[in-house]
Write a structure and sequence with these properties.
19 strands, alpha+beta, globular, 6 helices, 5-stranded mixed sheet, about 15% strand
Length: about 425
């Protein structure tokens, strides 16, 4: 009898200690945010170190997608870690970059008041040759809007279905900032043809992908990767890299999941693929079969003047925007459109420029795009609307950019320090 009582006593003690230990362990486990699962799960690849100034790390094998970012926003919103701002007129800091944006903005903020994204960010275009006029050749694809929206009734975010967008609003002056004229129409955009008036059909010979010109209103624009002229599906858009992301929009995502933004050195090292590649592609070159970019060479741009890069003695020529050959009429593409590099990483060159946590202090040879900005970080990797050289991962093509800037070709990926 005593033996049984003693055994029961020991079990109670063991259970007590188990509960005591659990009370310390469980909070430690639950302090990290829930991982993305299913189709939204982030896939990492192992990147070896160089034995000197790069330690081994893991990098997401693609840029973060619209769906992954929506999943983050929804969980962060439920946990009160982000705030959805009001629909209100563009702030003073946004007006200077208004271009062809919406008249209003609806920003998402973290708990420190840092802006992550503007949900009303639409196509970014404007007076590219700075002659004081908006011209038809300067217009950019309406599909360059941010493809995330907020449902005020359900209090949740979702990826935009292109088939359910009222595309007409982007051609109405009332929806645009003061002084911005909508000089194009919905019938100038091939991928929106199902929204055209009845009996209006695409004439293939009228499709223009790139060239500068004084076009009449019958011209039809399409990107060189979208010559099928079909509207992207919802599933495609879910797998587009999220864009219009500001620096803190990228950082908030990384912090939430316990990851980090890469340094410029990490992107350069991963992009080299163990083969000393300058471009983060499958073979170290840039062409229309392995990179999402404009499809054109820097040499095709008229040049003027010279630009001094910080810390460099060379003064490279820059494009002559008064004779600009035209804006790319495309948009971002799915993150795995082309083959990965030798390390298994997709799209380190092209699609969207990617934020890093590096600064100009770390890389004084980067191009400084800050103007009056006081806080800035480097982005690298080129984008869908830039020429071949801009897809280079060399420091001379890195852009030091204000933390508050968001654009139709700004995105990011994350790293996991092993």
């Amino acid at each position: 009898m005593a033996t049984n009582i003693e055994a029961m006593h020991q079990k109670k003690i063991s259970l007590f200690f188990l509960l005591l230990v659990s009370s310390f362990i469980l909070p430690l486990v639950s302090c990290k945010a829930t991982e993305l699962t299913g189709k939204s799960k982030i896939e990492f690849v192992d990147i070896p170190g160089n034995g000197e100034n790069v330690e081994p790390f893991q990098m997401s094998n693609t840029e973060i997608t619209n769906q992954q970012y929506v999943d983050f926003l929804n969980t962060a919103l439920r946990e009160n870690k982000i705030t959805v701002g009001k629909i209100e007129p563009l702030g003073a800091d946004q007006l200077m970059f208004a271009g062809f944006k919406s008249r209003n903005q609806q920003c998402i903020y973290d708990n420190n008041g840092k802006r992550l994204i503007d949900l009303l960010g639409v196509r970014v275009t404007g007076d590219h040759n700075h002659n004081g006029e908006f011209e038809l050749w300067e217009m950019e694809n309406p599909l360059n809007r941010i493809m995330i929206e907020y449902d005020t009734v359900k209090k949740s975010f979702n990826v935009v279905n292109p088939e359910k967008v009222d595309w007409a609003i982007y051609f109405e002056k009332a929806n645009l900032p003061d002084g911005v004229e909508p000089v194009d129409s919905i019938m100038n955009w091939a991928e929106l043809h199902r929204f055209w008036p009845e009996k209006k059909v695409i004439k293939k010979e009228q499709i223009v992908t790139w060239n500068y010109g004084n076009y009449n209103n019958n011209v039809v624009f399409a990107g060189h990767l979208d010559l099928d002229t079909e509207l992207p599906t919802l599933e495609e858009v879910k797998n587009w890299p999220v864009n219009h992301i500001e620096y803190y929009g990228a950082k908030a995502f990384a912090d939430y999941y316990g990851y980090d933004l890469p340094t410029l050195k990490q992107i350069q090292w991963a992009g080299a693929g163990g083969k000393n590649y300058e471009y983060g592609t499958n073979n170290g070159t840039v062409n229309t079969d392995n990179t999402v970019y404009s499809g054109h060479s820097f040499d095709e741009y008229p040049k003027k003047g010279k630009r001094q890069r910080n810390g460099e003695t060379a003064k490279p020529k820059i494009p002559d925007f008064s004779k600009f050959p035209g804006k790319d009429k495309g948009h971002v593409q799915s993150v795995k459109l082309f083959p990965p590099n030798p390390y298994g990483v997709y799209g380190l060159s092209g699609n969207v420029y990617e934020w890093t946590k590096s600064t100009l202090a770390d890389y004084p040879n980067a191009v400084d795009r800050t103007g009056k900005d006081t806080e800035a970080y480097i982005r690298i990797g080129g984008s869908w609307n830039y020429y071949d050289d801009a897809q280079s991962l060399a420091t001379k093509e890195a852009k030091n950019t204000g933390a508050h800037r968001g654009n139709d070709h700004f995105g990011f990926r994350v790293v996991n320090q092993r």
